[in-house]
Write a structure and sequence with these properties.
This protein is α+β, with helices and mostly antiparallel strands. The chain contains four helices and three strands; from the N terminus they run H-E-H-H-E-E-H. Strands 1-3-2 form a three-stranded antiparallel β-sheet. Strand 2 and strand 3 form a beta hairpin. The chain is globular and about 40 Å long. The termini are far apart.
């Protein structure tokens, strides 16, 4: 596997709610509240009881929060 394909695979990795909570430090209710407000990446439904997030979207959101705080 070449490096660019490895990077693309990592950028498209799908993560479930427990990992989103751990990564962001936010609670489930805060995550869904912010999704409703349009201030957090939307989840992707993979089935009636399975939702995931794209890891790179979560990492980008974190970077934006850090940048906003640091000016």
């Amino acid at each position: 596997m070449n490096i660019s394909k490895s990077i693309k695979t990592l950028q498209n990795r799908l993560i479930r709610l427990p990992e989103v909570k751990t990564t962001t430090g936010l609670s489930k209710s805060t995550i869904y509240s912010r999704i409703s407000e349009g201030t957090f990446p939307k989840q992707i439904s993979l089935g009636p009881r399975l939702v995931v997030w794209v890891e790179s979207d979560i990492q980008k959101w974190i970077s934006e929060q850090v940048s906003a705080e640091r000016g």
